[in-house]
């Protein structure tokens, strides 16, 4: 059974300096067939400022923001028809959201070391969205993850 939805419109993601993109997108003509979505940070839920920065939680929040923005875009496109196509412009893309995550990790966790921040990011996302829910550090901290006190291998 084919459960794919066909959209008769186009989704365009643009990357570049935020102010330049915002200016260019504002210059587009007003039309009920064109929808302009702001940068993904607009959809980012606020973190708890009283808590220490948590890279996994930030990436999860960014993932949710990207998903929410995509849902808005596809919701607009679903009403398009072959004769009445629609167009969505998005200020920023998924790779841009990944870059924001890496930059934020560098600011909070690696003293500005982008390479190290990228390694941390890749380690956190290596199991996809499901891996974002598996917070090993919190389980360890709360005692919900068994870590042996000694090496289980007994010397002979």
Your description of this structure?
By secondary structure, the chain is mainly alpha-helical. It has one domain (9-137). Helices cover 46% and strands 10% of the residues. It contains 6 helices and 3 strands, in the order βαβαβαααα. The chain has helices spanning 18-26, 55-77, 94-109, 114-125, 128-133, 136-141, and strands at residues 9-14, 34-37, 86-91. It has a 3-stranded parallel β-sheet with strand order 1-3-2, with helices on both faces. Helix 2 (55-77) runs antiparallel to helix 3 and helix 3 crosses helix 4. It is elongated, with a radius of gyration of 21 Å. The N and C termini lie far apart (60 Å). The model is unreliable at 144-148 (pLDDT under 50).
Radius of gyration: 21 Å
Largest sheet: 3 strands, parallel
Report strand %.
5-15%
State the order of secondary-structure elements, H for helix, E for strand: EHEHEHHHH
Mean pLDDT: 85
Topology (elements, then pairings):
Elements (H helix, E strand, L loop, with lengths): L8 E6 L3 H9 L7 E4 L17 H23 L8 E6 L2 H16 L4 H12 L2 H6 L2 H6 L15
Parallel strand pairs: 1-3, 2-3
Please name the defining characteristics of this protein.
3 strands, single chain, 156 residues, three-stranded parallel beta sheet, mainly alpha, 6 helices
Characterize this entry briefly.
With 156 residues, the protein is mainly alpha-helical.
